[in-house]
Amino acid sequence: MGSPLSPALLAIAASALAMTAIVGVRYLITSGLFALVTHRVRPGLYAGMNRQIRAEIGWSLLSAAIYGLPSGIVAWGWQAHGWTRIYTQASAHPLWWMPLSVILFLFAHDTWFYWTHRWMHRPRVFRIAHAVHHASRPPTAWAAMSFHPLEALTGAVVVPALVFLIPIHAAMLGLVLTIMTVMGITNHMGWEIFPRALVHSRLGHWLITASHHHRHHEQYRCNYGLYFRFWDHLCGTDRGVSAP
Ligand SMILES: [Zn+2]
Ligand SMILES: [Zn+2]
């Protein structure tokens, strides 16, 4: 019955649902794991925060559905029509392209995040789209995807757009998504998981970990970056690290 579009629409809907489930389950497992580690390493850190954590989980699962839609559409197009520049044969590009493609993805995502994040700190936009994320005071391991749907949408389009622009091996895309997931959680966990020697090193001067993002949640108008401190340093918005 119906138009010839129906089977394709059904396939797209199935793909979006599958992606939503993958993102949602991935969130529950990884955030749950880091919450468990937190319980062991910093017992009592999340004491009395059950209400906030429930809200963080609710917003994050809603975000999973918003992430699932564009990624589901693109995953369907990749399988059904060969969309995107994702490749699976390692020999399709020089080997050195693999690490470089990962860095390019992270830097592009970081750039997009920095500028949309700064925009979301304009008072009007903040109240509508970003206050939800800052309701986590201090954030917990469950806050990684705790975004208002509008903010979730700005994040959800990044990787699905980049796979059309930058060639990337499927395994490297998996690595990008893993870094995205782990850093999203550890940056909000409320304590620093990386060694002090790294955080306070020359390399640490350019990398974002919990010590850096925690200060953003404390002071709001600084430390806007996602992975790297490049834009924060360049634009004078870097206020160093705190000691969560
Ligand atoms: Zn945050
Ligand atoms: Zn913010």
Automatic annotation (TrEMBL):
Membrane spanning stretches: 12-37, 57-76, 96-115, 152-185
Fatty acid hydroxylase domain ranges (all copies): 102-237
Pfam families associated with the record: FA_hydroxylase (PF04116)
Location of the protein in the cell: Membrane
Keywords: Membrane, Transmembrane, Transmembrane helix
Cited InterPro entries: Fatty_acid_hydroxylase, Sterol_Desaturase_Related
The keyword Lipid biosynthesis appears for this protein: no
Listed name of the protein: Sterol desaturase family protein
Gene source species: Novosphingobium organovorum
